[in-house]
Amino acid sequence: MARIENAKSIGEWLDQRIAIETLKKVMQTEYWIPKNINFLWAMGMVLAATFGILLVSGIFLLMYYNPSVDLAFDSVNYTIMTEVGYGWLWRHIHGVGASLVFLIIYIHMFTGIYYGSYKKGRELIWLSGMLLFVLFSAEAFSGYMLPWGQMSYWAGMVITNLFSGGSLEAYGLVEWIRGDYVPGQAFLTRFFMLHVLLMPLMIIGAIVFHFGTLRIPHVNNQDGEDFDYAEAAELYKAGRVKESKVIPFSPVFLSKDVFVMGVYFILFFFLVFYKFEFAMDPVNFDPANGLSTPAHIYPEWYFLWSYEILRPFSKDIGLIAFAIAQVIFFTLPFLDRSPNVAPANRRGLFNVWFWLLLVDVLLLTFMGKLPPTDATFASIGAFSAYLFFALWIVLPIITKFEKKL
Amino acid sequence: MNKELKIFAVVAAFTLALYYGVEPYAHSQMHKHVEGHGLVYDGKADIEAAKDEKVKAKKEAFWADVKKISELKGDAVAGEATFGMCAGCHMDGAANMGGVTPPSLDHAGVLYDKNYLIALIKDPAMASNVDHKYPNGTMTHPMGSISSMVSAPQDIANVVAYLKEKKAGHVTPREAFKEACGRCHANRYGKLTQLGELPKTKSNIATGKDIDRMKYDQKVAEEQAAVAAYMGKLPPDLSIMIRARGEHFMHTFIENPQSQLAGTAMPRVGLNHEGMEKVMEFLEETGDPSAPARAMAGPWVIGFFIIFTILAYLWKSSLWRDLH
Questions:
Q1: Whole-model pTM over 0.90
Q2: CA distance A252 to chain B (A)
Q3: Which among B310, B177, B158, B153 has a CA at the least distance from the CA of B250?
Q4: pLDDT tens digits, residue range A74-120?
Q5: B-contacting residues of A 161-220, CB under 8 Å?
Q6: CATH classification (class only), A31-293
Q7: Domain annotation covers residue B28
């Protein structure tokens, strides 16, 4: 056993047992972050904070939510909203948070794409981030089932139907997923389990992994500049902070994060108190009814772009296109053949590609919610879906011929 | 800093475009927009919507008669005597008649429009714009027998004058809902059933069973079955309908259900401005009960985060000042 002496302080006592001083250095004061960054680099911590808020508000909601097909709707809309003190506040925080977490995830993703933060050496940062995106999507979808309103029910019906595989007609698989022929008690209880246990556990694991992947390749910076971190760290420790290209995670980087979080929370709570309707679809205020299909079924806004990719094609091709769209972002580090690590605006055609992709995803999102019965909307949607795939096909070609910086 | 603001402007612009596209714009395209007609009940919308020429002519004649009666001067005292005919059915504790329980008219004078009341006494099915439900003549409406009791124009004018004068007085949002909507629609979050207020009952201590509640529940179930048989389906509970449909939809739907849902069995109830306001107030109360608490807490929470952000900015500035 290590030598343990009488400690003079709690810090020392802990240090003897769990090396808290070393831990602090490794995780905070000597975890080096590049200095040349902007507020978009705070999105990671904003996401961590939002996840924390979702977890805490979720725990409070869990105390009163009742996962039974007869009681779920009223436990959310009456018990929590009326009888539980500040229940409405926790629900609004949870609903708005679930929507905003995706907004920040998308900003975080497109920041990574713009600055080339997925390039050689940083592939695992990108891949673990995409894994988090998939896990958050599953978490969001399973959570959406819980109020057991019309949109919960019918979204559950439509999405689980996708697993029939089009012409494969694998209805056995669909029934296995639902635990019934149609969404019912078995369905609700298992999605409840996914939402409050399995998915959060996996998300927490993936977050730890995502942080871990940052350690060796280091965080990218605004110019994609590669420099000697050890040297820069020595300069900082020697007090020559102006010359050094790095800052410690805590407190310097964190102070900026906290400021950005402050701005974000002003927006967050403005939405919670005054503009929460966008996060709570009106259709879901009708209780689930298997005998009455709503006039329009659409997913929450963050799934609309991939939903729209499903729509313009015939059944089987649509499903394949949809499946590809779900995973195509994983392949980015491998389809981008250019070794350049630089912001898109210095990368010639890739810059055009980036903005086209962003606008295209936005267009797909718009069209995904509009009624497909309108010919104009349908053709804009189809065009955007074709463009989406065209962009991914040309990506290796344009990056292959990209001039080396 | 300047560069950061530019980046922020780009992010904000895309976020706002995203919001506009998936919220206000998408919703404006998803539902047909129906204009209200200012709670005026002159049959104009009914006549316009009529496809069959015969029906159209019938409606035109009907609403022309209503207009004539509305120009007569009603005598409230004479009306009170005639009202005795109405009170035979419209009384406290009335039983279901032909599918629906006759409503209390205690506040009819405040809640309903004058022209509408005239039309209703003249021909209930035509007034409530559900004549399509009675192919064997509108007199088969549960209230159709009124024509054999009160049919002379002056009598109608008198009864309406009586209602407007004596069945007025202050009405609460809850009473407005009960009288105008509550015989068909429950509001379980507001503790209202088709039979009115949910009674307070107690469980038997020895058995844990609430027998009075069971009896009441049975009565409600029977009433619901009668309403459902008459209406074609059980009219939905309205507890949070305002959240599901929005204020504009509810307003135009209540004003003329056919405008939003052609062919529906729901009658037009003829609310005037005050009646509509009261009913909507009750729907807001049960549908969005946290509104007052939000208004109280909102500024404090946002104020807290503004101060938090200012302090965070000062902290950040103090740490970053010497870095460049």
A1: yes
A2: 6
A3: B177
A4: 999 999 999 999 999 999 999 999 999 999 999 999 999 999 999 99
A5: none
A6: mainly alpha
A7: no
